[in-house]
Amino acid sequence: MVTVIINDVPMEAKVGERVLNVARRNAAHIGFVCDNTGLCQTCRCQVLAGAEHLSPPSEIERAWLSPAQLDDGTRLACQTVIRSAGEIRVESFAETMRRMALEVIRPPRGTDPVSNLLGLGTRLLNRVSEQIAALPTGLPEVIASNGLRRSLLFIRDGGRYLDDLQRTAERMRTGAERLERRRLTAAE
After folding, report:
1. At 124, is the secondary structure helix, strand, or coil?
2. What region, left, alpha or beta, does residue 106 occupy, with left being phi > 0 and alpha being psi -120 to 50 degrees?
3. Tens digit of pLDDT for each residue in 9-55?
4. Which one, 10, 40, 60, 178, has the greatest CB density within 10 A?
């Protein structure tokens, strides 16, 4: 059996499935726009445990991500395929940003909102600059791997995209993901 824990919420998965597809099926808070082409990079995540159960980084990931980022466990969920049974733990970049934003609104004890806001701003600026810096290698690799048409017309099923987006937003709005985390923490 494969268990993928995305943003602290366990989900069942199958060998051969992409991490992004597991997230979309379960309305997990993970970015997705380009329909598995690797162009948008909004599904960037960090593999915290279980990397041995995943495919090695794809050519597209190696084009967008530096060796240091790959060594740190950074992956594109749309390119990351589950290769064997086991437990995999992932935190999405979107979730990391959400948690950092909450620390600005409700600073943890011993921190202040201004420092937390600076940390959030720095992280976002670094991410944007990394994406811009990787364009000369990333974009040609995406086009070479997917073809020009699919790379530029990446939303093939707009209805599915909007449905997934709505389900994810609803799950976050209602706090279902937060309640699931609390339930799991209480069970431990």
Report:
1. helix
2. beta
3. 999 999 999 999 999 898 888 878 788 889 888 899 999 999 999 99
4. 60
Question: At residue 59, what is the residue type?
Answer: E
CATH class of 2-154: alpha beta
- According to DSSP, the β-strands at 2-6 and 9-13 are antiparallel
Burial level of 52, CB count in 10 A (0-12/13-18/19+)?
A: exposed
Distances from the Cα of 2 to the Cαs of 50, 54, 72, 138, 187, in angstroms? Answer: 10, 11, 22, 30, 20
List all residues 6 or more positions away from 116 whose beta carbon is below 8 Å from its beta carbon.
100, 103, 104, 107
Q: Which helix (H) or strand (E) holds 105?
A: helix 93-105
Residue in 99, 96, 95, 92 with CA at minimum distance from that of residue 76: 92
Question: What is the spatial distance between Cα 142 and Cα 136, in angstroms, rounded to a whole number?
Answer: 11
DSSP 36-80: TSSSS-TTEEEEEE-GGGBPPPPHHHHHHS-HHHHHTTEEETTT-
| Chain length of the chain | 188
Q: Is the pTM value of this prediction over 0.85?
A: no
CA 43 vs CA 32, 34, 131, 188: distances in Å: 5, 9, 13, 29
